[in-house]
Amino acid sequence: MRLSHTAGLFVLLAVILSACSGGSKEAPADAHPAVSDKPPVSAETEPPVTQQQEPSPAPPRPQETKQPVAVSYRVYTGPLGFRLPDTMRELSVGETAVMGLEPFDLDVLLPGLKEEPARKALSIEGLTLIGDPVWLSEGGLALQIGKGATGQTGTINIRVDGQTPAALEIRRVGPATVTIDQRIGHTWQAVTVLNAYTSPGPSAVRINFSKPVRKDEVESALLAAQSKPIRGLMEWTDDQTLTWQIADLPPRLDFLLGGAHDADGLPLPGGIPSLRLGDPPAAVLVDLADLEEKVLGTLPPDIVTAELSRSRQAINLIAWIPGTTKWDWRTVDLYFDLEKKGLKTGRVEEVVPRLPDGLENWVVSPNGSLVASLRSSGVETESFQADLVVTDLRGGRSQVFPNAIGRYRGAGQVDLTTYLAWSPDSLAVAALSYAGHPETSELIMVDVSTGERTVLVPDLPVRSDGTRLTWSGDGRFLLAGNMLINQEERAAVPLPGDTAAGGFWEPGGARLIYSPRDWGPTFLVNPETAEAEPLGDGMAVGWVGTGKAVLVRWNGSETRYLPPGQ
C-alpha cells in the first residue's frame, strides 16, 4: 500500500520527535518487539562497562600557623609608683584580672620586641592610663592605670603582625569595708577612733566585712598582728562576720589584715582603729596660776604632734593611722575643733599662700603679710645650699637671698625639713644651717629687708634637719630642740630631754611650756633662769592667752604606736 506524500511527512516527523525524546516513551502493550539482525549477546560475552573515574581532589594547602605573642604581665597592688615585690603578682595571658578601684601599676613584658614595636603593639580599651607608658630595660612597658568604677571592665591588647593577638581583661570591683564592735554587757558597741577604749579582763569583739572574705587568711593576719599571743576563740557566723572571744584583753588589740583578701582576691583594707585599755587622750586647759585643769575634748590616740591654730580655735594634729601590717602605718593631718568638739581630717590654716613651684618649708610671719620659704639652688647632694625666699602676700613680689641656709640630707633620708622661725616683729628669720657636721648646726638670723646674715651661735649641738625652732614672744630667746638660746648674749643652755623636744612661748612674753619628747614630762620654763617647773606627763600644745596653756593628757600613752625600731 502506497502512502500519500502528506502521510509520509507525518511519519517522518514522528520519527524525528521520537529520536529527540531519547526513546523514553514505552511501547504499547500490543506492540511487537523490534527485530534485530544481530545475534543476542550472552552474559559471558557482554562487554564490560567502563566507569568514568572522578578526578582526585587537590591536596589541601598547608595552613599558615601564627605564633602567639610572647607576653607576660605583672600587677602591683601597693601604693601607686611603689613596685614592691610583696605587692606583685603575675597574670596569665587570657586571664581576667580582678582589681580594686584605686590606681595600680601594671608591667606588660614583651621580651621579643624593641621599644617602638612594643609601643605600636599596645592598645588599651575601657581603662584610663596615667601618663605615658615607660620602657623597661628588661623589655616591656610599665603602665599606671587610673581609678576605676565598680563593674568597669577594660582590656590590654597586644597585636603584632603575623602573630596571634594577646589580651588581658581587667574587671574593677569595690573594696571590702570593715567595722569593729565590742561587746559591752549584752549589747554591741562600735569601735571608732574616738571610742576605742575599754577595761581590762575578758571581752568579745565582732569583725564585720561588707563582702565575703577568705576566712583562714583573716584569722592568720589577726593573730600575727598582736605583739603577744592572745588566748581566745574565733567563730564565724558566715563568710562576712567573725566573733573573737578573748580571755584577757591586751593593752592594745590591733586589727591589721595584711596578707588577707576578700573573695575576689583583693587585699583587705587598713585604717581600722585599735582597741586599747584605759582612757582616751584629752586636751586640757591649764590655768598656770593655780594649776587647775579643764577638759576641752577627746582626741585620737597615737598623736605625733599637736599645735594650736593661729586663731586658737582648733588643735592641728599629726597622728598615726593603722595600716595593714606593723610596718605600714601612716601619718595623717587632723584637727580638733575646740568650739564644736569634733575631729576632722585636714589642717586649719588661716593663711594659705599661693607660692611658686619649688618653694618649701614655708612659714607665715606674725603680722600675716610675709612668707619665708626655702628653694634649693643647684643640684641637691648630701649637703647643699638653699636660697631664702621672702614673699610679700600683699603684692606677690619676692626677695631672694641666695645660698643663705645650708641643708643636710642623710643617707636614706626621704623627708627634709628645715624649720624657719620669724622674729615677733616680722623683721628677721632665724634658721638652723648645716655647717659641716650632721650632728651640729649654726643658728643664723637673716634681716629680710637687707639680707644681712648673722651667725648667733656657730656650733649648736642639734641637727639642722628636723630640729624644731621657735622664737619667744618678746624676741629675746629662741628654742632649738632642747637648747635654750639667749639672743642678746648669744649663749645656749640645755633643757631636760633630747633634741626631739619642742615648746611654745607665751604670747607677748617669755615663759615657755615645753615637752622633752612627744609624750612624757612637760614643764613650764623660765628662760631667765632656765628653771623648769614640772607640769605632769603629757604633750605641750600652745597658749590661749596669758597664763593659760593647753596640754594633751593621756594615761594610756604606753599603748601608743611606735614605728618598728623605736
Structure description:
The strands form ten sheets. Strands 21-20-42-41-40-39-38 form a seven-stranded antiparallel beta sheet, with no helix packed on it. It has a five-stranded antiparallel beta sheet with strand order 3-2-5-8-7, covered by helices on one side. Strand 22 (303-308) and strand 23 form a beta hairpin. The protein has 566 residues and is mostly beta strands.
Biggest sheet, strands in spatial order?
21-20-42-41-40-39-38
Give the overall silhouette.
flat
Radius of gyration: 43 Å
Class inferred from helices and paired strands: mainly beta
| DSSP E strands, number | 42
* Sheet having the most strands: 7 strands, antiparallel
How far apart, in Å, are the first and last alpha carbons? Answer: 143 Å
Strand content: 35-45%
Provide the residue-averaged pLDDT.
Answer: 85
Q: Any low-confidence stretches, pLDDT <50, length ≥5?
A: 1-46
Helix content: under 10%
What count of helical segments does DSSP give?
A: 3
Give a quick summary of the entry.
With 566 residues, the chain is mainly beta. A hairpin with a 3-residue loop joins strand 7 and strand 8 (140-145). The chain is flat and about 120 Å long.
List the helices and strands and how they pair.
Layout: H1 5-20, E1 67-68, E2 72-76, E3 88-91, E4 96-99, E5 104-109, H2 115-121, E6 122-125, E7 134-136, E8 140-145, E9 153-158, E10 163-164, E11 166-172, E12 178-184, E13 187-190, E14 197-198, E15 203-209, H3 215-224, E16 232-238, E17 241-246, E18 252-253, E19 275-277, E20 282-287, E21 292-298, E22 303-308, E23 314-321, E24 330-337, E25 342-345, E26 360-364, E27 370-376, E28 383-392, E29 398-408, E30 420-422, E31 428-433, E32 441-447, E33 453-460, E34 469-471, E35 477-480, E36 483-486, E37 491-494, E38 502-505, E39 512-515, E40 520-526, E41 531-545, E42 548-553
Parallel strand pairs: 1-10, 4-11, 14-19
Antiparallel strand pairs: 2-3, 2-5, 5-8, 6-9, 7-8, 9-11, 12-13, 12-15, 15-17, 16-17, 18-19, 20-21, 20-42, 22-23, 23-24, 24-25, 26-27, 27-28, 28-29, 30-31, 31-32, 32-33, 34-35, 35-36, 36-37, 38-39, 39-40, 40-41, 41-42
